[in-house]
Design brief:
Layout: H1 2-15, E1 17-19, E2 27-29, H2 54-66, H3 71-75, H4 83-86, H5 88-93, H6 108-114, H7 133-143, E3 151-153, E4 169-177, E5 180-187
Helix pairs in contact: 2-6
InterPro entries: Thymidate_synth/dCMP_Mease, Thymidate_synth/dCMP_Mease_dom, Thymidate_synth/dCMP_Mease_sf, Thymidylate_synthase, Thymidylate_synthase_AS
Pfam families: Thymidylat_synt
GO molecular function, one term: thymidylate synthase activity
Length: 195
């Protein structure tokens, strides 16, 4: 994992284009970088070139799975990654002046659990509203594993203008072949850093 990651960073440094991004800081950008990781034999592809807050990764994923969109609830568990995007200052700068602090809008978890539902805030009851894509993915993996339609999509064009930040990992497609589960993830943007 470490060697592959470092080779990707070198490739970005050698071949990437200097791009001014929305933050004004700028990036080295390389479009369409591919990477493959095996999870066989209990291996989790974690970086060893920098410290990874494993508990935070798990808590954020569980937060998505619940369909939660309130950054303050995640922050209360010690995971601060969404704090800046849920801050009063940031929300106001994005035109969300009436939205409570911490309300990120219909981001990942909402799209996974209530795709197509009308968003009414972090504490609204969305039971039975929209499409529960995650439940559908699990059902298909169990009962229709040969399907080529096992897809989880967070990129909902109708809701992008309501999101504090549009999704980076936008689409995941799953496949079951020979009793093994595979996933292909498309990410519109991903940071590659070294500490």
């Amino acid at each position: 994992m470490r060697g592959k990651y470092l080779r990707q960073i070198k490739h970005i440094i050698d071949e990437g284009d200097k791009v001014i991004d929305r933050t004004g800081v700028g990036t080295l950008s390389l479009f369409g970088l591919h990477s493959t990781y095996s999870l066989r034999n209990g291996v989790i592809p974690l970086l060893t070139t920098k410290r990874v807050y494993w508990k935070g990764v798990v808590e954020e994923l569980l937060w998505f799975i619940k369909g939660d969109t309130d950054a303050k609830r995640l922050s209360a568990k010690g995971v601060k990654i969404w704090d800046a995007n849920g801050s009063r200052e940031f929300l106001d700068s994005q035109g969300f002046k009436d939205r409570p602090e911490g309300d990120l809008g219909p981001i990942y978890g909402f799209q996974w659990r209530h795709f197509g539902a009308e968003y009414h805030g972090t504490d609204a009851d969305y039971k039975g509203q929209g499409v529960d894509q995650l439940a559908d993915v699990i059902e298909q993996i169990k009962n229709n594993p040969n399907s080529r339609r096992i897809i989880l999509n967070a990129w909902n064009v109708k809701d992008l203008h309501q999101m504090a930040l549009p999704p980076c990992h936008t689409l995941a497609q799953f496949a079951v072949r020979n009793g093994e589960l595979s996933c292909q993830l498309y990410q519109r943007s991903g940071d590659m850093v070294i500490d």
